[in-house]
Amino acid sequence: MGPALRATAAAVAVALLLTACGKDGPSSSAPADPGGGGVVLGVGGDQPEAAQELGFPGFATKNTTRVAGADPVADAAGVAQAVFPGGVPAARPPAVVLADEGDWQAAVAGAVLMARPVRAPMLLARDGDLPEATAAALRRLDPTGSGVLGRAQVIRIGDEVPQPDGLQATTVAGGDPFELAAAIDRIATTAAGEPSDQVVVAGAHEPAYAMPAAAWAAKSGDPVLFVERDAVPEATAAALRRHEQPQILVLGGPGQVSDAVVEQLGELGAVTRIGGATPQHVAVSFARFAGGAGGWGVVDPGHGLVFANPGQPAAAGAAAPLSSSGSYGPLLLTGDDGSLPNVVVQYLLDIQPGYQSDPVRGVYNHGWLIGDEQAITLATQSRIDALLEISPVNDEAP
User: Fold this and answer.
1) The pTM is what?
2) Deepest of 36, 88, 185, 206, by most Cβ within 10 A of its Cβ?
3) What is the pLDDT along the chain (398 residues), one digit of tens a residue?
4) Main-chain dihedrals φ then ψ at residue 20, nearest 5 degrees
5) What does the alpha-carbon distance between residue 221 and residue 276 come to, in Å, rounded to a whole number?
């Protein structure tokens, strides 16, 4: 088993890890992973590192689950299989999206195809090939080809993405990121039967500011389009005109999308800028936002959250199915070094659950962490876990 495939196996939900051990617990005679570096199923309780090998706390804590791929390719494979675990027809996707790991605009814009009615999770190619983790996940997912896109089992985003053998594929192409995002919007609109009332617009050259758009697109079906900092490309303008004066959410400040561009966009719809000093600030502001045609509006406890490193922009597309299923929830960004920025800490404190007498009657937050400890450190995971924990509320004055 190669490293990428081991990383994919590590990404499967903790419940699968425990199930693999059997109802009576792990067998002490089970062999260790011969290659090293992956979660070992069936580790015996007499082994000193048994808890860690089973995924605790590296892959799961009481309030977090980590998809521990060493790169976005493995993360995408793990997420797709967590959302569509198979076993019954309803747990297989109608189709999968296949984008290139190095094309972050395709990964972010392509996330809209996870929204209803298409429901296609994303897998990632690399330099024109299918990495081992992607090929294995594609076999396990076994897309049905019974969705709104006809018999298509694979949606290729871009001409350079390989076509898997033996599967029906359709291709979405464009000469640049602006045309490609507009083409993705067209196929999503066709599938939905009408254009969305809201569109997210981001700058095409600073990926960290655009990453949170992928999660929202996957949940809402609102497309992601791109602009230059100082110009609105014609492909983007034409796409916005097809939406007939939508609400336009612009992610980033004037450094990413200039005021002049916002003014131009105002001729094509009602514009709201969601800005911030850093990508982490923008992600938190987007998580809080609610208005117009909609927004996350996550300002209270009882939600899912997804955490990713801004240095891995393709991870936004890889993680997007987690924002469109399960506990849902916006994408938040760690620091480049995998630490937890203060703006995220404060946000988690603001939405931390509490209870007065019985925690069973409370609501709960849950966090998905995308990437291994190089992307998000174990210390950060522990801190996130503590900030998500439901805590007693003391109504008495000190």
Assistant:
1) 0.89
2) 185
3) 444 433 444 444 333 333 333 333 333 333 334 333 444 556 676 766 666 666 778 889 999 999 999 999 999 999 999 999 998 888 999 999 999 999 999 999 999 999 999 999 999 999 999 999 999 999 999 999 999 999 999 999 999 999 999 999 999 999 999 999 999 999 999 999 999 999 999 999 999 999 999 999 999 999 999 999 999 999 999 999 999 999 999 999 999 999 999 999 999 999 999 999 999 999 999 999 998 789 999 999 999 999 999 999 999 999 999 999 999 999 999 999 999 999 999 999 999 999 999 999 999 999 999 999 999 999 999 999 999 999 999 755 55
4) -65, -20
5) 24
C-alpha separations of 210 from 247, 252, 317 in Å:
17, 8, 11
From the CA atom positions of the chain, what is the Rg in Å? 21
Inter-residue contact 318 to 370 (CB < 8 Å): yes
User: Residue 249's beta-bridge partner residues?
Assistant: 200, 272
79 and 383 Cβ atoms separated by less than 8 Å: no
Q: CA distances (Å), 269 to each of 177, 254, 263, in order?
A: 21, 18, 10
Q: What size, in residues, is the chain?
A: 398
Q: Which of 309, 314, 270, 278 is nearest to 77 (CA)?
A: 314
In this structure, what token pair is assigned to residue 304?
């899912």
3-state secondary structure of 232: coil
In angstroms, how far apart are the furthest CA atoms of the chain? 69
Please state, in angstroms and as integers, the Cα–Cα distance from residue 375 to each residue in 152, 210, 362, following that order.
34, 18, 32
With 0-12 / 13-18 / 19 or more C-beta atoms within 10 angstroms meaning exposed / middle / buried, residue 148 is middle
Burial 325-354 (b: 16+ CB within 10 A, else e): bebbbbbbbbbeebebbebbeebbeebebe
